[in-house]
Design a protein that fits this description.
435 residues; alpha+beta; Peroxisomal Thiolase, Chain A, domain 1; 10-stranded mixed β-sheet; two-stranded antiparallel sheet; 15 helices; 14 strands; 18% strand; globular
């Protein structure tokens, strides 16, 4: 970075677990609610933003450029451009990186960047043959033609809709569901079912601790609250992340059956991230905007890296993205004060830990002279992660950066890394400094 890029503030909605039916909020509902609350506590108006950038992996067909929809609904005005980015699980981090690039180039000075997804509203799809039948039926003009077409209705499995989110979570190149790629990572490093369940239980326990201590919903350590309460159309209040469970112990999680490889696998719904709805925003600014509006930054972006790897082991993406940043800055794993690695799967996070410990992996895949070392687990996901909170795909990349800054401020830390695995065989990482 040849000039300072500041994170001024950030805010998110509660993350709401999918209940096997459309949730109470659309993606733009959640983005609008969080954005309005965040802008309301700033010394500038939404119309003074240079642009709004929103990451979203699964926008609804009626709000495809959801960044623009949210910008208008938040009251930023007609003149503020709004646009949408998509890098699967890292869409929210990509929005922050896109904002950073525009701030560095001078094309903007004050940008709202975030991420959102309402995965509970992912569509149900029909087989192509069923779609063709609907087309033929719509084209029939006379009653005899319609009866003849109706007689050709493809009964049976074609009438059963395809679950869109399952199609979306299947890699089109390697043909594997994301959970099957997690099984691959577990197999490579010998990660056991017990280790996965213990890590998943740890995630729930740490989120529960953070909720009880008020680290998410109240102001602390000079920071405003991370979560804003939201109301649905019926007036129901949603104040907190609702996927966390106090009964998620390793022993209870051990009772669940493998989901992705039912015969030989160990990855279950309990040691995987949850299907969730949520939105999060951050405000990014350069020094000019900080001075103009007398802003008080909470952090600074020091570096960003994107990396590619085998889609069949996409969960190791954080290792491939974070390692070059560490090398550029002459840092070891534990020279940082905190780490946030998005918990797509317990096997995937534990796989990243093992990859850095492996002499062979670091030499063969990362081009290093030897192993990076063993990360201090007390610095990793201090307040839990997506296994307990959920993973609204487009939002998670922004959430881990924002929460990392909250952790650093609360613990007195200075530098931290947020890293995320990305479907398709990618990894993203962002190095930040608390101010």
């Amino acid at each position: 970075m040849y000039k300072d890029i500041y994170i001024i503030d950030g805010l998110r909605t509660p993350f709401l677990k999918s209940r096997n039916r459309p949730g109470p909020f659309s993606a733009s509902d959640m983005a609008t609610a969080a954005g309005k609350a965040l802008l309301a506590r700033q010394p500038f108006a939404g119309s003074e933003l240079d642009e709004v950038i929103l990451g979203c992996a699964a926008p609804s067909v009626d709000e495809v450029n959801i960044g623009r929809v949210a910008a208008l609904r938040m009251g930023c005005g007609l003149a503020v451009p709004g646009w949408t980015v998509m890098r699967n699980c890292a869409s929210g981090m990509q929005s922050m990186d896109s904002a950073t690039a525009n701030l560095l180039s001078g094309r903007g000075h004050l940008i709202l960047a975030g991420g959102v997804d309402a995965l509970s509203r992912a569509p149900l799809l029909y087989d192509e043959r069923m779609v063709n039948w609907f087309s033929d039926f719509a084209a029939a003009r006379s009653l005899p033609q319609r009866l003849a077409t109706f007689a050709k209705l493809p009964f049976g499995s074609l009438l059963s809709p395809i679950i869109g989110i399952m199609r979306g979570l299947t890699d089109p190149v390697c043909g594997l569901l994301m959970g099957q790629t997690a099984e691959n990572v577990a197999c490579r490093f010998g990660i056991t079912r017990r280790q996965m369940d213990e890590y998943a239980a740890r995630s729930h326990q740490r989120v529960i601790r953070s909720q009880k201590n008020g680290w998410l919903n109240t102001a602390h350590d000079g920071l405003a609250a991370e979560i804003t309460p939201i109301y649905d159309a019926k007036g129901t209040l949603y104040q907190a992340d609702d996927g966390v469970r106090e009964d998620s112990t390793a022993d209870n999680l051990a009772k669940l059956r493998p989901f992705f490889d039912r015969k030989y696998g160990n990855v279950t719904a309990g040691n995987s991230s949850q299907i969730t709805d949520g939105a999060v925003w951050t405000i990014l600014a350069d020094g000019e905007a900080v001075q103009r509006h007398n802003l008080k930054p909470i952090g600074r972006i020091l570096d960003v890296q994107w990396a590619g790897l085998d889609p069949a082991e996409m969960g190791l993406g954080p290792v491939h993205a974070a390692t070059p940043i560490l090398k550029r800055h002459g840092l070891g794993l534990n020279d940082l004060d905190a780490w946030e690695i998005n918990e797509a799967f317990a096997a995937q996070v534990l796989g990243c830990v093992e990859a850095w410990k492996s002499e062979q992996y670091c030499r063969d895949r990362l081009g290093l002279d030897g192993a990076m070392g063993e990360i201090d687990m007390e610095k990793l996901n201090i307040d839990g992660g997506a296994i307990a909170l959920g993973h609204p795909v487009g939002a998670s990349g922004t959430r881990i950066v924002l929460h990392l800054l909250h952790v650093l401020k609360r613990t007195g830390g200075r530098r931290g890394m947020a890293a995320i695995c990305i479907g398709g065989g990618l990894g993203g990482a962002m190095l930040v400094e608390a101010l």
